[in-house]
Amino acid sequence: MKTHVRLPAIxxxxxxxxxxxxxxxxxxxxxxxxxxxxxxxPSGPYPTDADEALWVWIDEAWHRDLAHRTTxxxxxxxxxxxxxxLFTYEDSFPSAVGDGQQCVLSWVLVEPSDLEPxxxxxxxxxxxxxxxxxxxxxxxxxxxxxxxxxxDRYDRLGRMLNVIYGTWADPLDAPETVQLVLIDQTVDVPLxxxxxxxxxxxxxxxxxxxxxxxxxxxxxxxxxxxIPVRTDEPRATPEPPVFAGEIRYDGLTVDWLTGDVIPLTLxxxxxxxxxxxxxxxxxxxxxxxxxxxxVSPPTADWHVFVQLYDESGTVAIQSEITxxxxxxxxxxxxxxxxxxxxxxxxxxxxxxxxxPGLYTIVVGLYDAETGEQASVTSPPDAVFPVTMGQxxxxxxxx
Length: 398
Description:
By secondary structure, this protein is mainly β.
């Protein structure tokens, strides 16, 4: 008799436990912890207003992109009365929209809304970590660190919010500290990145402070390992000047932080400001070059001229170079500098009595037969000759 009474009780207990476990697992899957992946966006109810704002935002993006999305929350940081959430998402696109895959590192700032009940996404930033085709295995880095990205944004009340974020492919080689190094200070940050990711929030603009991530490493000279921080703002690739539609200047240098073109200069640069003129001390002997690429077969005997103007507009130094231009342009998909590009070399002497001051470097082409300068056909707003940069000249005794 006792046996018949216990069996239903045991069965009821087992059923209750199974239901409880199933509910617990369901809720756990619905609201993932840090570093746990979840397919697309879970439906409510949500544990917090911040979660609701995040998942509604992701759900809208998921439907808009027509992709199968897997989202992993990496870190969460408070920001005033809101929250910054760092996460990755992996998309698998159907063949109708490209049949590819991507992994994207992203963050959002969620805050209460003044206009309607609930929270919303006030600011966001993201950077595609890697692309790969659907028929290939997902590439997994085996060493090193991904580049860190900087977002320059504002919150709901107009307060500046700068976000530095990145992911580690592997743990670092057991350094004691990881530092965010700025021009005027060094900020210590925790060693262990959460879920192989890094997130730093600041209420000041950090672009001018030239941030870098550094840590100690076992190099023979005791130097530090470092990773530059780059902007995540979408920027168009700067268009180099093209002379006569035939010869393109191929020596543009783009700043890794801002994406802007760094002006050409001579001498020493200011390490805190790559856009400032360089400094050249007299006496000096300067040997440098300009890179060029043939866009279309040259129709004239183009010579290169390089001039240095003082502040009054007077030419202080001038060089004219006969260029041996290649006859064929560079193929778009097969760039071979030996066949379609050249470097014109310039040699300037700055004696001890060279007048000090700010000088401007100007570059152009001219037709050796007619003496006419080649017009700048690209970019559209360029003028000729082209001002490439400036340099301060000073006496070595100053």
